[in-house]
Amino acid sequence: LRGLVLQALRNAWGICVSHGQLPPLPVPQKIVATWEIISLGRQPVPEYFNFAHDVLDVWSQLERAGHRPPIPAFWWVNSMGAEVKGSFEELGGQSRKAANVLGGTCGLQPGDRMLLLLPQLPERGLVSVACMRTGLVFMPGTSQLTAKDILHWLQASKAKCTVASEEVIPAVESIVSECPGLKTKFLLSPHSQNQWLSFQELFQTTSAEHSCVETGGQEPMAIYFSSGTTGSPKMVQHSQSSLRIGHTLCGSSMSGSFSFLPMLTSVSFSIIQPLTTYPITTLCSAPTVYWMLVQKDLKRCKFEKLLHCLIGGEPLNPEVLEQWKVQTGLMLYEGYGQTGIICANQKGQAIKPGSVGKGYYPMMSRWVISNWFNKEPVSVQHWSKFLMCVVKAFVVLSAPFKSSNPEKLTLELQDHVKKSTAPYKYPRKVEFVKELPKMITGKIKRNVLRDHEWG
């Protein structure tokens, strides 16, 4: 391991190796412990680090050497019961072939950016690992992005390549003339069409021999776009080390376990059924998913292997947290999404006047300002159960209240907020709507509500 040995494991292993060579294999527990030490700031981040070479290939080597039994590196299922799973060795071989398609066939260079417009399919992870091996910067998207979204992502990122599923082609073709930097278009299909290259066709004929590029720990690895709930989506860049070493504690591959990828069709299948059927120990999802799950009768479900439940991306209503604990016996722990931000002193750094305190970086889009009082939207949501937009609340009525007198109900809601929390937090205006505009992840589009109010 290049950076791992040169930096983090030099004292532990007492060896130094060059790029492309693997040292004598340590026990798996020592590898996991070392990544955790680095993640906690007790050892410096490696100068050179590549997740594919320094993590995935190491687990593959351990399996081949008999130091640990083979387990799936990934496990994908769909609503029809079809499964695709592969070991770390299989993932390594297939990702090397995919890397040759990207770097050899099409001549993409380290640092070039690639937009992934794919649903939750096995190829999505395969292409991501191939990007790591070639030094390409991948940008995870979804096949549900609109033409407007795709145009913004391509222009903002200056992407040179995209890999897309067939259903996205019309949207891409409608805006591709405005993206002259987009040189290569891969189609997830057995056959090429028009100016789209068949990824599967090239993959079948390319070599499985590939040497991973050397990447610095601080070099860019991926770019995530924010949800765009308050405006145009913003780019958030992750380095080779920040994305993978920084996610050690919940990153399955870092610890040599597998990632389970359900093909999302409905909550009842894509979440509940796998949790009761497969050996899943950690569930990480958006708060909206947990809200949908607690609407079911989870007490009848047996999540025998589930140990840890995480959320990220936005705050969670305390009632959902409590209902989840009552129905499953498990706590929900809040983390950060891929585009979250935090400002804090580094571990061990002395605190002095002027030091940045630990907490969320104050963004205007995350705070409600009314009559010179600041209040975080989630605190209002927890009490009044509706979204505050400066001095206005947009309310979706449940069935028992749909026939209520709007003026009377407005006064009741305002009075409820005044009694339940600080009086100044009550909404000066209330508008009843059929539904709130949401992203595909369930996050509320605050910018749409803002534009609705102010134009």
Automatic annotation (TrEMBL):
Instruction: Decide whether keyword Heme is in the record.
Output: no
Q: Tell me the Gene Ontology biological-process terms attached to this UniProt entry.
A: acyl-CoA metabolic process; fatty acid biosynthetic process
**Keywords, ordered alphabetically:** ATP-binding, Fatty acid metabolism, Ligase, Lipid metabolism, Nucleotide-binding
Q: State one Pfam family annotation.
A: AMP-binding_C
Q: Which reaction does it catalyse?
A: a medium-chain fatty acid + ATP + CoA = a medium-chain fatty acyl-CoA + AMP + diphosphate
Every copy of the AMP-dependent synthetase/ligase domain together lies at 66-250, 273-358
Could you give a GO molecular-function term held by this entry?
ATP binding
Could you name the Gene Ontology cellular component terms for this entry? mitochondrial matrix
Question: What is the official name of this protein in its record?
Answer: medium-chain acyl-CoA ligase
